[in-house]
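Internal tracking record. Fields below are filled automatically when a chain is submitted to the structure queue. Please do not edit lines marked as system-generated. If the sequence contains nonstandard residues, flag them in the REMARKS field before resubmitting.
Queue: standard
Priority: normal
Entity type: single polypeptide chain
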Amino acid sequence: MAARASRATIRELRLSSKGQSERGMNGQRKRAVGDGPRTTALVSAQLLGAAWACYVIRIEPIASASRAEVAAWIGPAIEAYITGQFGKPAEPRP
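SYSTEM-GENERATED OUTPUT FOLLOWS
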């Protein structure tokens, strides 16, 4: 299952670098971000940061989490980078 998710993510990155779109699971058309280099850099930074925290620095709870848990935590951020659909910005702290 992880291999399928990885292939899907790679396909999305390829599409985003070309400015193309793809249909989501529900059949609706999703527009990939047109700025391929920025999308690639953001996704790479997210994945490398998670790997560094998990395997090199061993930061808890990510170091002892299952792959599924880590995917659930960082998946929405990666999806937002790829699709360009970000949530509501955080409120500034006083």
